[in-house]
Amino acid sequence: MASFKPRNTRASMAAVLLLLGLLVSQTEITGAQSIGVCYGRNGDNLPGAAEVVSLYQSNGIGRMRIYDPNQETLNALRGSNIELILDVPLDKLRDLSDAAAANDWVQRNVVSFSPDVKFRYIAIGNEVSPSDQRAAFVLPAMTNVHNALAAVGLQDQIKVSTAVASSVIGTSSPPSAGSFSDTSSPFITPIISFLASNGAPLLANIYPYFSYTGDPTNIGLDFALFTAPGVVLQDGQYSYQNLFDALVDSLYSALEKTGGANVNIVVSESGWPSEGGNAANVDNAGKYYRNLINHVTQGTPKRSGQAIETYLFAMFDENLKAAGFEQHFGLFLPNRQPKYQINLG
């Protein structure tokens, strides 16, 4: 099979993660502890944070990712028991490369809300390109935030990482050949050492949708949607029936080649748009989310039986994103009506 072409850096900072079923069918969530939903706020018609937290709770969604330390959201999360990934946005990376600034950031945005808010990970940047000037500040900011957490005894409870795109992989097919690109390697290798030393996972945004639309001639839609009737790719002892597993395992292979054999992957975004692009429709999106949610409890061929902590993007359609498919990743419409029938039963 041809190389799984990863998506280029997308036009807006967040990308896409979603949840569940078709409008007329129901999605059963199994292994709900492995599933979270990203809460993006790039819209001018979205409900308030308190309503959003209530919507998470009423739908049994126990994990959330937010892309900046929005105070309204953090206050609404107090006492909710929702576990949180909190991002440091790109425009703060340089600031947090200063230890004093990082300590102040942690005090204001983490310590002042803990333990009422259940922080799980701090993500230092989302899909920072190795060629971006801000890439030089990612590891220093990670180190400083970790040290600030350690100073208040939270380093074991809250892990520090960064979220990467599939584009950090140079070779992805077959998955056993997975390796970081020559461009990415100087950026990612010391980060992997940091994660391995501190028992933290690598956050990764995994999008079979973009791999499929980037090479539909060589990648079948059924392989991307978890609907292939049999093995599509045999890689030594490992058999691949879906593209999601192949992408995740190519990243595991790259980690193993870079001193990160013991670093776990948390899928910090994954989803499929309901309109606005090739193969973007409610039917395909429903298939993807149902099958993804049911699949992540099983692990990948390389990590069989190890549930994959996965965050679907996003809670709502966001109308201020770039026109097209980027606006159509919501599980819910801005009026809080579900785009897909959700059954947490």
Automatic annotation (TrEMBL):
Question: Which EC numbers characterise this protein's activity in its record?
Answer: 3.2.1.39
The answer, when asked if Signal is one of the entry's keywords, is: yes
In Swiss-Prot or TrEMBL terms, this protein is called glucan endo-1,3-beta-D-glucosidase
> Is the keyword Hydrolase in the record?
yes
> Which Pfam family, any one of them, does this sequence belong to?
Glyco_hydro_17
Name the chemical reaction catalysed here.
Answer: Hydrolysis of (1->3)-beta-D-glucosidic linkages in (1->3)-beta-D-glucans
Mind listing the UniProt keywords for this protein, alphabetically? Glycosidase, Hydrolase, Signal
Task: Tell me which family the UniProt entry assigns to this protein.
Answer: Belongs to the glycosyl hydrolase 17 family.
SUPFAM superfamilies from the entry?
(Trans)glycosidases
Q: What class of enzyme is it?
A: hydrolase
Signal peptide start-end: 1-32
Query: Per its record, what are the GO molecular function terms?
Result: glucan endo-1,3-beta-D-glucosidase activity
Q: Which GO terms describe its biological process?
A: carbohydrate metabolic process
Provide the gene name from the record: LOC18589903
